[in-house]
Design brief:
The protein has helices spanning 3-39, 102-126, 131-159, 166-185, 189-239, 245-267, 313-316, and strands spanning 41-46, 49-71, 77-82, 89-90, 95-99, 270-272, 277-282, 289-290, 297-311, 324-329, 332-341, 352-358, 369-386, 391-393, 396-403, 406-411, 413-418, 421-426, 434-435, 448-453. By secondary structure, the protein is an alpha+beta fold.
Length: 454
């Protein structure tokens, strides 16, 4: 092998080695550049927005008509006829039921005769005649009234007796009302047991009370007639044959007052609807005994329906008149708005009563329990970010903010959380770039590059 060939071979080898060496150096630089680029975490960011945010909670409430009237009659007696049943629609002024007038017709006739006799006697007295006859007539009227009063009292003693415990009845009635209210506010076994016991106690009194009340009213009417007769007689004795026109006018008024009172009693035997609406309760039956202490009908105007529910003190402080409420009955939802917020806590439940009015027609029965969704916290000008950007460390909230190419863990105070949004009370401003994308490599101090900002 010649020296020239060896020299040429070495040159070629050196050239190849040089190329390989240069190539190797080039690959190392590229890898370092790629590695450096890979170390910067690409992230997406969003700036906080100032917006309204609220939080809702669910409650249970009872639906009732805004206008509901319990109808009470003014006279006692036997029910002659009823004209409406539960569920019927009634117009204001329509006749609901009437009592049998036979119980009062005799008294009315007596009152009329007494009135006519009184007027006749007054006229005779004014004419200066009939003194002895007038005295006799007044005494007769007084005697008849006294006899009627004593007869009613005797009948009452024989029928009802004097052992009716009015105090016990009132206590039983108050206990029943309190138990009903307690059960409505907190339906449970304890309140149900108390309600049953109270109802049994009340039922033990109610029939005797109705009988007692009927005779008490008759006795009161007879007593009023007797006292009127006494007063008329006293007036007569005081004026006697006096020609004092004013005294005679008073006598006329007394006589007419008694008769008019009886006419009014007859008018009261018919009971009319005080409002237009739907019959929701009926407590009178034909041939049954009615007393004015009993609500004969309950008429409700269901054009406006309200929902009453109870909330805690921290919730009631966040509510305002006009706040929107959603009412759910079965699979149907209705809109409502708060119209009344109680300012006094219920001593039994420790809650405050809130009332909302349905703002649309709702086919919901009175007294039905429904579910409500109401706003319980709200902020008008809140700093809001996506709730997914909030992290927690031992209960302390923080977010990552992109600053000068670095992720900075920033402590924040979280307020209202609603859906996918969170209110930040403290820790952020509108100019901060909050990192919204997630990465296992995201940490405080990590180099970041914003690839997209919303």
């Amino acid at each position: 092998m010649s020296k020239g060939f060896f020299t040429r071979a070495m040159a070629v080898a050196l050239a190849v080695l040089t190329v390989v060496s240069v190539s190797a150096c080039g690959n190392s630089a590229e890898k370092e550049a790629v590695t450096a680029e890979a170390a910067v975490l690409k992230v997406k960011t969003a700036r906080p927005v100032v917006d309204y945010i609220d939080q809702t909670s669910s409650f249970t409430g009872k639906v009732m008509p805004d206008d509901s009237v319990s109808v009470y009659g003014k006279s006692a007696g036997t029910v002659l006829k009823t004209y409406f049943e539960i569920g019927d629609t009634v117009e204001e002024g329509q006749l609901l039921f009437e009592l049998d007038p036979k119980d009062y017709q005799i008294a009315l006739e007596q009152s009329k005769l007494a009135y006519e006799a009184a007027i006749n006697n007054i006229e005779k007295a004014e004419n200066g005649s009939g003194d002895a006859l007038a005295e006799l007539q007044y005494q007769t009227t007084l005697s008849n009234a006294q006899s009627a009063y004593e007869a009613v009292r005797t009948e009452m003693e024989l029928t009802v007796g004097d052992d009716f415990d009015m105090s016990g009845f009132k206590k039983a009635r108050n206990r029943y009302r309190a138990a009903s209210k307690a059960y409505d506010m907190n339906p449970c076994k304890e309140t149900m047991d108390e309600l049953k016991a109270a109802e049994t106690s009340y039922d033990n009194f109610i029939d005797d009370y109705h009988n007692f009340n009927v005779y008490a009213l008759k006795l009161e009417t007879a007593y009023d007639s007797y006292m009127t007769a006494v007063e008329s007689y006293e007036i007569y004795k005081s004026i006697q044959k006096s020609e004092n026109t004013a005294s005679f006018d008073i006598s006329r008024q007394q006589a007419k007052l008694q008769y008019d009172s009886m006419l009014q009693t007859m008018d009261n035997l018919k009971v009319y609807a005080p409002i237009s609406g739907v019959i929701e309760a009926k407590n009178v039956t034909v041939n049954g005994t009615y007393a004015p202490s009993l609500a004969s009908y309950v008429v409700s105007n269901k054009d406006i329906m309200t929902v009453t529910f109870a909330v805690s003190g921290d919730v009631v402080s966040e509510m305002s008149i006009g706040d929107k409420v959603t009412v759910e009955n079965g699979n149907k939802k209705y809109n409502a708005e708060i119209t009344e917020i109680g300012s006094m806590v219920n001593a039994a439940s420790g809650l405050f009563t809130v009332e909302a009015r349905l703002t649309e027609d709702a086919n919901i029965l009175s007294g039905v329990t429904v579910k409500l969704t109401a706003i319980t916290a709200k902020s008008e000008n809140a700093v809001v970010i996506p709730v997914s950007t909030v992290y927690y460390d031992n209960g302390d909230a923080y977010v990552y903010v992109a600053k000068d190419g670095v992720a900075v863990a920033t402590p924040v105070t979280v307020g209202i959380i609603s859906g996918d949004s969170a209110e930040i009370i403290e820790g952020l401003s509108e100019s901060d770039s909050v990192i919204t994308s997630w990465s296992a490599k995201l940490d405080d101090g990590v180099a970041v590059e914003v690839s997209e900002e919303v």
